[in-house]
């Protein structure tokens, strides 16, 4: 008597005959569902499950290792787009640049802050509740009408962002890097607000000085050769001093100090389950401190 052989089919494609089993789940799989494994083949679902169970590699600061500095690309793109918008609409600088307090008349003329002010003048800046200026000013740059430095301003900043950003993002990971950049930009704006509230300032320099501080702190934490790193920091500090007459040294210093604090938290947080919590806690605490300082300063504008 002749026995009838049983036909086995792929569990994902029931109409396809298969004689190979997944080495993990032991189900039959067809050639389209086979994935090479260390021994034999695995099905698509088992490969995905295995990938989820593998612990992703982390940097010394807790960030995920990424090959593409995506955040740096996006930040450069936003700065360039903002600059192109300035060329089309120059009034964007006055509308979104960092300004603590100022007055504007009906003809668009700008005046120094005084309180109380006459009815034919209108408040502008943070004194008028325009809190977004604390960050939007960090994505704008000197207009091209400011001479050659107007163009050099964005060119130099984007060159620095390209060189520093890729290194720092690679070590911190995207989330920590973005938090560092935005907090440094905010820290620069807040120091401008505290020291020179009536000056309109623009530029990514505060955030970039924050990246410079991060580069220095990370190098020390990783035990790198500090000779070249120290030369870099000396050059950065010299530029902050020499450019004080052309740019906002307050924004540079505020970004530098903020970036240093954030990166110290990243670098020296305990390397256990508390690391992410400590790092996030320091960032939130710093954000609250900057917000309180900004609010207190703005409140003084209308105090008599």
Automatic annotation (TrEMBL):
The chain crosses the membrane at residues 65-85, 147-165, 177-195, 201-217, 229-246, 252-269, 276-298. InterPro entries: Peptidase_S54_rhomboid_dom, Rhomboid-like_sf, Rhomboid_protease_S54. Its main location: membrane. Keywords: Hydrolase, Membrane, Protease, Transmembrane, Transmembrane helix. It comes from the Bacteria. One of its GO terms (cellular component) is membrane. GO terms for biological process: proteolysis. Belongs to the peptidase S54 family. This is Rhomboid family intramembrane serine protease.
């Amino acid at each position: 008597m002749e026995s009838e052989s049983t036909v086995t089919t792929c569990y994902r494609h029931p109409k396809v005959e298969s004689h190979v089993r997944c080495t993990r789940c032991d189900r039959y799989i067809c050639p389209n569902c086979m994935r090479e494994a260390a021994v034999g083949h695995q099905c698509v679902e088992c490969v995905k499950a295995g990938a989820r169970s593998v612990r992703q590699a982390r940097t010394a600061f807790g960030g995920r290792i990424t090959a593409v500095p995506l955040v740096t690309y996006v930040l450069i793109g936003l700065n360039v787009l903002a600059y192109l918008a300035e060329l089309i609409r120059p009034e964007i600088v006055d509308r979104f640049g960092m300004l603590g307090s100022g007055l504007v008349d009906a003809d668009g003329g700008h005046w120094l802050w005084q309180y109380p002010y006459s009815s034919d003048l209108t408040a502008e800046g943070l004194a008028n509740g325009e809190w977004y200026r604390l960050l939007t000013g960090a994505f704008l740059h000197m207009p091209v009408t400011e001479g050659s430095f107007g163009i050099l301003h964005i060119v130099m900043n984007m060159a620095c962002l390209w060189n520093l950003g890729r290194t720092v993002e690679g070590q911190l990971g995207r989330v920590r890097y973005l938090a560092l950049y935005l907090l440094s930009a905010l820290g620069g704006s807040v120091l401008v607000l505290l020291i020179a509230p009536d000056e309109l300032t623009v530029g990514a320099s505060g955030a970039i000085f924050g990246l410079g501080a991060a580069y220095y702190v990370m190098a020390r934490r990783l035990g790198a050769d500090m000779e070249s790193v120290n030369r870099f920091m000396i050059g950065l500090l010299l530029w902050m001093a020499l450019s004080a007459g052309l740019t906002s040294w307050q924004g540079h210093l505020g970004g530098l100090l903020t970036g240093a604090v954030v990166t110290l938290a990243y670098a020296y947080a305990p390397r256990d389950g508390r690391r992410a919590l400590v790092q996030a806690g320091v960032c939130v605490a710093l954000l609250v401190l900057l917000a309180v300082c900004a609010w207190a300063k703005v409140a003084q504008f209308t105090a008599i």
